[in-house]
UniProtKB/TrEMBL annotation:
<dbReference type="InterPro" id="IPR011249">
    <property type="entry name" value="Metalloenz_LuxS/M16"/>
</dbReference>
<dbReference type="InterPro" id="IPR007863">
    <property type="entry name" value="Peptidase_M16_C"/>
</dbReference>
<feature type="domain" description="Peptidase M16 C-terminal">
    <location>
        <begin position="186"/>
        <end position="358"/>
    </location>
</feature>
<dbReference type="InterPro" id="IPR050361">
    <property type="entry name" value="MPP/UQCRC_Complex"/>
</dbReference>
<protein>
    <submittedName>
        <fullName>Pitrilysin family protein</fullName>
    </submittedName>
</protein>
<dbReference type="Pfam" id="PF05193">
    <property type="entry name" value="Peptidase_M16_C"/>
</dbReference>
C-alpha cells in the first residue's frame, strides 16, 4: 500500500523517478513540467500543451498523431493543466501495455518514450513556428474551457473567492489563464514562449512498471533532446499573513441559488509536521459526508444544498463551498462560523475522529492500487521538499488526538467571505 521504492536520477536537468515493479500490466509515465504562476505567462503556457497534442514533426497531422497511439496497442495519452501552490503545472501522461502481454517486435516502453519525447520537444511546425490553424483552434478550446467555468456557478464562485482572497498573489490566477489574453497570442509569440518554457521550467519524469532507472535514463538521453542549463526548484510563499479583518465580497449575477464561499489561511503546509492534523481538521470540517458542515448546515438546519471544504496543503489555504437560498445568507454564515469556532474549542466527538480517520485511511490505502496515484503522491514530495511515505502519513493520522486537531484548528483564520447572489434586493 505504500509508495516507497522510487529510484532517483537526473538527465539534462530532468529529474527522473522510477518505481520498478511487476505489479501492473502497464507502464505508467508522467512528465510534470512546472513554472511559476505569472500573469504575463499563465495563458500562453496553458495553451502550449493543447497545441502540442495536435501533431509532431513525424506525425504533423492530428489523425496521424492518434494513429500512432493506436499502433502502440491503444496507449493512453493525455495532459492536465493545474496549479500547486504558486506554480502552474502541466502533466503529460501515458500508459502503455507491458511488452510481455503482447506480441511486439519493438519494446513498447522505448516506442512510448520516442512518442512522448517528440510530443514535448519536436512539435509540428510551419515557417519555424507552431501551425497557425492549430494555435487558432486550440485558443478556442481554452476559451471554451474558461467560459465553462463562468457558466458553472459552483466553480465560478470558488474561483472568485480565491481571486478576492489572494489579490496581489500569484495564487489568484487560474491555471488556464485569462480569456482576455487569448486573442493576442499568435503562433510566432507562442512558439517563443514554448522555447522559454522548455528551457526554464522544472521537469520531473516518473515511470512505474517493469523497468529500471538505468533503462529510463538511457531513454531520456535518446528521446528528450533538450538544451537546458537551469535547475528548477519549487518554492511557494506560505499563505499566512498578518491577520486582517475578514473581508466580505458580494457579487450579483443572474442566479437563482446563492453560492456562499469562504477562504481561510493557515501556516500549516504539506511540508509541516502538523500536516496530518490539518488533513484531519479539513475532514472533520467539511471533507466528507459525516463532516460538521454537511451535518449541521445541510442536514440539521436545511440551509444548504451542498456544504463542503477543501484544503490546499501546498499553499496553506482552506475553502468552504455551499449553495444556499439567498434569504438564508446571514443564518448560514453564522452556522458555518459556529463550526469553525467549535473546532477551535476542541468540540470534536470521538465518532467524528474515528469516521474521519477511516475515510483518510481508505484514501491512503487506495493510492497503492493505482500507478498514477502513487506518482501523484510522490510528486508532492518534489513540490514540498518533504519526504513522507503513505505509511508514515497513515501512522501519523492514526495517532492524532482531539487536542492535535484543535491545535491545527487554531491556525486556520477566516480571511474572506464571498457571496454570489441574484440581482434583486440588497
Amino acid at each position: 500500500m505504500t509508495n516507497t521504492g522510487f529510484e532517483r536520477g537526473s538527465n539534462q536537468h530532468i529529474r527522473i523517478h522510477v518505481l520498478p515493479t511487476k505489479r501492473f500490466k502497464t507502464f505508467a509515465i508522467s512528465l510534470y513540467v512546472g513554472a511559476p504562476l505569472k500573469e504575463d505567462t499563465v495563458t500562453s503556457t496553458a495553451l502550449i500543451p493543447f497545441v502540442l497534442r495536435r501533431g509532431t514533426s513525424s506525425y504533423p497531422e492530428t489523425i496521424q498523431f492518434r494513429e500512432q497511439l493506436e499502433e502502440l496497442y491503444g496507449a493512453g495519452f493525455g495532459f492536465d493543466v493545474y496549479k500547486r501552490g504558486d506554480h502552474q503545472i502541466i502533466q503529460f501522461r501515458m500508459d502503455t501495455i507491458n511488452d510481455s502481454f503482447v506480441q511486439s517486435s519493438d519494446k513498447l516502453l522505448d516506442r512510448s518514450f520516442a512518442f512522448l519525447g517528440e510530443v514535448v520537444t519536436s512539435p509540428a511546425k510551419e515557417n519555424g513556428h507552431f501551425r497557425s490553424s492549430y494555435v487558432q483552434q486550440e485558443r478556442d478550446t481554452v476559451r471554451k474551457r474558461l467560459e465553462s467555468i463562468v457558466n458553472d456557478k459552483i466553480r465560478y464562485a470558488g474561483e472568485r473567492c480565491i481571486e478576492e482572497m489572494c489579490k496581489g498573489e500569484p495564487y489568484r490566477l487560474h491555471p488556464l489563464g485569462e480569456r482576455k489574453d487569448l486573442p493576442g497570442i499568435e503562433p510566432e509569440g507562442l512558439y517563443k514562449s514554448y522555447e522559454q518554457w522548455l528551457q526554464n521550467a522544472g521537469m520531473d519524469l516518473y515511470v512505474v512498471g517493469d523497468t529500471t532507472l538505468e533503462e529510463v535514463e538511457k531513454l531520456v538521453e535518446k528521446y528528450f533532446h533538450l538544451n537546458r542549463n537551469t535547475s528548477f526548484e519549487y518554492k511557494t510563499e506560505v499563505s499566512s499573513r498578518p491577520h486582517r479583518e475578514v473581508q466580505t465580497v458580494v457579487e450579483k449575477l443572474n442566479v437563482n441559488q446563492g453560492k456562499l464561499n469562504m477562504g481561510l489561511r493557515t501556516s500549516i503546509t504539506y511540508g509541516d509536521d502538523q500536516y496530518a492534523s490539518a488533513l484531519m481538521y479539513n475532514g472533520i470540517l467539511g471533507g466528507y459526508p459525516h463532516s460538521k458542515l454537511f451535518v449541521n448546515v445541510r442536514e440539521k438546519h436545511s440551509l444548504a444544498y451542498y456544504a463542503s471544504s477543501r484544503y490546499d496543503g501546498h499553499k496553506g489555504i482552506a475553502t468552504i463551498q455551499s449553495g444556499i437560498e439567498i434569504p438564508n445568507y446571514e443564518q448560514a454564515v453564522e452556522i458555518i462560523k459556529n463550526q469553525l469556532s467549535d473546532l477551535k474549542e476542541g468540540k470534536i466527538s470521538d465518532l467524528e475522529m474515528n469516521q474521519t480517520k477511516a475515510m483518510i485511511r481508505n484514501l491512503l490505502r487506495e493510492i497503492g492500487d493505482s500507478a498514477f496515484e502513487m506518482i501523484s503522491y510522490d510528486f508532492n514530495r518534489q513540490l514540498s521538499g518533504k519526504e513522507r511515505t503513505t505509511m508514515e502519513l497513515l501512522t501519523q493520522i492514526e495517532s492524532l488526538t482531539i487536542e492535535d486537531v484543535q491545535k491545527a484548528a487554531e491556525t486556520f483564520q477566516l480571511d474572506t467571505i464571498y457571496f454570489l447572489r441574484d440581482q434583486k434586493g440588497e
